[in-house]
Design a protein that fits this description.
Blueprint lengths: L6 E7 L7 H5 L6 E6 L2 E6 L2 E7 L5 H11 L3 E6 L10 H21 L4 E5 L6 H13 L5 E5 L13 H9 L4 E4 L14 H21 L1 H4 L5 E3 L6 H14 L10 H5 L3 E3 L5 H11 L4 E2 L15 H5 L5 H16 L8
Parallel strand pairs: 1-5, 5-6, 6-7, 7-8, 8-9, 9-10, 10-11
Antiparallel strand pairs: 2-3, 3-4
Helix pairs in contact: 3-4, 4-5, 6-8
Length: about 350
Amino acid sequence: MEKSLRIDFHTHVISEEFLNLAEKYGDDRWPILEKTCDCGANIMIKGKKFREITDQAWDTETRLQDMENEGIDIQVLSPIPVTFSYWSNPEQGLELARFQNDFIASIVKEHPTKFIGLATVPLQDVDLAIQEMDRAINELGLRGVQIGSNVNGKNLDDDALDLFFKAANDNNVPLFVHPWETMGRERMPRHNFMYMVGMPSETALAAGSIIMSGMLDKYPSLKVCFAHGGGSLPYLLPRMDKGWNVWPQIRKTEKAPSHYAKLLYYDTLVYDENNLQFMIDRFGADQIIAGSDYPFLLREAPSGKVVDKLSTLSNEEKKRIHGLNALRFLGLEVENFQ
């Protein structure tokens, strides 16, 4: 197979000089970064270790070397989801969002052919979220917005969030939905189930909320990509179609859920060829975007490994999944990176 552009759409980054808002505002719910050595740190919440990270999360040269070693041409950078902090005072949440967006934009500015940036916004206040989305896209040059799968327990089809999705639709801003604050997390303290079961379930709920709500009829230009292959959504779609058919009173859409699922995008982080094939059968190859969850332990290395393993894909389909679908989703051209 000839060399094709390889984009890792799903990667996370954090500043080594991350704001300590816990200290500034006297509230230990804020995530803070505690360095353990030059090569690592802990993200701390309420005085407890939330997760360990390595310098891959903040050191651009380390990241570039990893990309070189793994054959990745471009990474799409987004914040670590725990930093969404939608629970916070909106103005304080905006402060953290602006800091992270400025940081990501600075990396992209330094390496414009190697990195593409996604913003974060304080979705607990839709007006501020729209304001920061506008700044991030039109002033900083970021190419989309990463959002959480819910906002303080409100699903993404909640009326309070409608104006944000309208703004994204009207301004052609693509959205990347990542699970956070997963449902049922009080039942998942053992076995790291939050990552293995909670996140895929949470993602399916977020996707289902958008699919069933009529949002994609209302906002036909809206572009949304879901992390982790859409979680459990591909498997649940026939059940959603059945429910839509037998309960006409719940219908808010013109067509069955499986129709709208094919309008959304999904990353390839499912690890397994059979799962990826199932996604392609459900959604079509043009809706699938290679992404790894770099630099975390559950990542696929290299990004798109499962795509290369899938023998049923043509070379052209692999090119689209490895890179061209990401560019189309983000409204970019290959020539921007040559």
